[in-house]
Design goal:
This protein is an all-alpha fold and 216 residues long. 79% of the residues lie in helices and 0% in strands. The chain is built from 10 helices and no strands. The protein has helices at residues 2-5, 12-33, 38-54, 61-74, 78-91, 98-115, 120-136, 143-171, 175-188, 195-215. The longest helix is centred in the last third of the chain and has 29 residues, at 143-171. Mean pLDDT is 89; it is low at 30-36.
Amino acid sequence: FLIQYYPGNCTYNEVIQRQYLIAYLTVCYRRGFLFIHWSEREKAISMFETILQNAPYWGKADEMQFEVGRLYEDLDEQEMAIVGYSMVQQRYPRSPFAEPAAFNEVRCSYTLTRRHRYSSDLRMNAAAMAKDFLYRYPRSEFSAQTRLYLNELYREQAEALYFQALVYERMAPSLNSAIMIYERMIKEYPASLWVAPAQARILQLKTRMLKENNEN
């Protein structure tokens, strides 16, 4: 109320500091007492977001934005958590919270791929985030876990392409479509365990096509 109606007649920084303490205690009291109810998380998010609107570059703004992402993640709202963590990196790129926010964004994206196993788009998006994190923070303490995520996503994407090609062998009017998918998988994921089976399938399909052409 003071900030909205009397912004020039109140000790602005003191008001923001008190808002921050109220929001922080809303989370910490419950966390230290028993557990944080969903309503407390949602209330704390609303408080932090209000403070960020009032003072987006206040001294603890980066910490609050990170906390918004973490609280959304606690609520199992991965998409909103990704937005929250992304804002930390966009607004406060030099903050000590930027690196853990980037990793948490990767983790949330990976979690979404666990829920939607057949979504190639989600896998590719999560893999792109993981690659970007490793590029920006090659010596991060989170690098090892990020590589595990990336390797798993690559394995699943290679496997998905392999079985997509198998379907094309049966359904597509031309075997060339299946060969193209196998070749794409080999090119994009050369370290995959599916490379050898894909090479074998390509050889068999080309032999079959040559035989059919000779018969015609």
